[in-house]
Amino acid sequence: MRRRTLAGEAHFEGRGLHSGVPVEVRVIPWESGIHFRHGTERWQAIPENVTDTSRCTRLGGVSTIEHLMSAFAALQITDAEVELTAPELPGMGGNALGYYQTLSRIGTYDLGEREAAVPFKRVYFHEGPVQIAIGRGAGHWRYTYNAGDRWPGEQSFEATDVLGQYLQEIAPARTFALAEELPMIKQYGLGQGLDESSALVLGDDGYQNAANFPDEPARHKLLDLIGDLYLSGIPISLLNVTSTASGHRTNVEAAKLLRSSIEEGKY
User: Fold this and answer.
1) Mean pLDDT (whole number) for 160-164
2) CA distances from 154 to 114, 147, 150, 247 (A)
């Protein structure tokens, strides 16, 4: 595989997706993996450094890294330093599109080759209704979202070429919430960096605002899954992944399992 960093600096600003706190972000060319830094502390983007997975993925002291990590994965960026002025990444439309487009315009710089470790056998994570199956492959990813008895029930999205389909079919898919969750979200001060244009609301019998895709929840869950599993350091184009009903916590557990299975030479 090719190691890649940015050809120049990228800059983002906005309000933290959940906290609403103003934040400025610099993504800097780097040569030793992906790291996030706030103040004097910095954390390598590996699953073992994840500290919280409630409503988002928190790496060390930095929250909501999954959308930027997803864009890194889709652009095959393996090395970058992310500096923040506040401890949460901005909402950026509730998806990965803004990250992807800006990083793509700047372009990448080739750092040379390294051997990519991929699992020899499939790696499974299974917990209750959650199932994640990961194996070596060619970038075939599928996510099944299940809302249970309430609308929309079950919906799936499949990308047979995850890199080729990412910009048009995955990156624009926004974060979402069930209508009955909105009072709790407001009570706990969540989603303050989002609005009606950057978050999809699922009502009892349909979307309460305009959807970008008829199956947008499944696509956004796949976007998150890509970002969380990229913590393993394995290129998404070298994996085939099928996931049902997973969220940030189980995604990160699967990333740990994937990473440890390779490092320990189990396969």
Assistant:
1) 98
2) 40, 6, 9, 15
Quote the CA–CA distance of 80 and 10 in Å, as a whole number: 10
In the predicted structure, residue 264 carries a pLDDT above the cut 70 = no
pLDDT band at 237 (very low <50, low <70, confident <90, very high): very high
Query: 119 or 185: whose pLDDT is higher?
Result: 185
C-alpha to C-alpha distance for 54 and 52, rounded to whole angstroms:
6
Task: For helices 97-106 and 66-74, give the axis angle rounded to 10 degrees.
Answer: 40
Percent of the chain residues past pLDDT 90, beyond the cut: 87
Q: Please state whether the peptide bond connecting residue 152 to the residue before it is cis, i.e. omega within 30 degrees of 0.
A: yes
Q: Are 169 and 74 in contact (CB under 8 A)?
A: no
User: Per-residue pLDDT tens for 40-71?
Assistant: 999 999 999 999 999 899 999 999 999 999 99
d(CA 64, CA 82): 13
Strands 2-6 and 108-113: antiparallel
3-state secondary structure the chain: CEEEEECCCEEEEEEECCCCCEEEEEEECCCCCEEEEECCEEEECCHHHEEECCCCCEECCEECCHHHHHHHHHCCCCCEEEEECCCECECHHHCCHHHHHHHHHHCEEEEEECCCCCCCCCEEEEECCEEEEEEECCCEEEEEEECCCCCCCEEEEEECCHHHHHHHHHCCCCCEEEHHHHHHHHHCCCCCCCCCCCCEEECCCCECCCCCCCCHHHHHHHHHHHHHHHHHCCCHHHEEEEEECCCHHHHHHHHHHHHHHHHCCCC
* Cβ-contact 146, 154 below 8 angstroms: yes
Bridge partners for 4 per DSSP: 110
